[in-house]
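FW: tagging you since you asked about this chain on Friday. Here's the raw sequence from the shared folder, copied in full. Didn't touch anything.
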Amino acid sequence: MWKTVVRRLLVMIPQIIILSMIVFTVAHFMPGDPFTGQLDPNIDPQQLDALREAAGWNDPLPIQYFRWVGNVFQGDFGKSYAQQVPVTTLIGSRAANSLRLGLVSTFFTYAIALPFGLFAGRYNESWFDRIVMVYSYVSFAIPTFVLALIMVYFFGYRLGWFPTRGSVSSSLTAGTGAYYWDMFYRLLLPGFTGGVLGTASTIQTLRNEVIDAKTQDYVRTARSKGVPEGKIYSKHIFRNAFLPIASSIGFIFSSLLNGSVFIERIFAFNGMGDLFITSITSRDYSVVITLVLLYGVIAIIGSLVSDIVLSLVDPRIRID
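HL: got it, structure written out here
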């Protein structure tokens, strides 16, 4: 298995290189440049050209790319044009919040999807199954920003149960119990929102697996031997139905982490998603390129993690 993991890691190298080329090229085809709109509109155009020349923006694109790659190998992803700090420092200050949000969203996804999918499959065509299917279709169809706005309005403004802005109160002292409690409390509503959005595919997959497993020969054999129905589901059907869910855990976590852009923006949550939107609007290309590349790497790693988890859950399966 470790040989397979090493091979997959080696395969990731050309994938990341190709991804970096695409991201770097597309970013430089965006309208404007990092200096557009950040300076006095009455500034002398020659002075603006001098700034672009000093930053290397007048060089051919391949030269800019290889210069950027050389800096990346030295741990230098550039400097934020908008905030005048290193990109690694800026993203590092937001990464922990996004990671916590992704973990909480993943928890809510499985906390909702597992019981819904299992019982909908066991009691398919029942009233509970129909309710779950309606919920699944709605959660799949509703746009992220619409659900986030509904959550903010209903649970934040109407009921007042949760704060709707920020990742932690600025009035609290870092490291105290109140500080960490406030941080956790502010994670619940955006985390629940992301979790709801990630349940549809898991519910559908688990439900279909349970329904299919009920017709298998090993289930008929267990019933003919008088095995209690509850034990048939817990020991045989549910265990086998979990395999495709286990294989997708890496994909689900990476998609929730990468897809939290709108949630972070609407909840004013200081994570990488909020930084991504801000960087695009301010044409802060060094930050945009690094974030998109980071999201791509996370997705690639998520695929590898899913394969490893599946091979651990079911020893009969070996990733090749």
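FW: Residues 87-313 form a domain with the MetI-like fold fold (CATH 1.10.3720.10).
HL: agreed, and The longest helix spans residues 87-122.
FW: great, closing this out.
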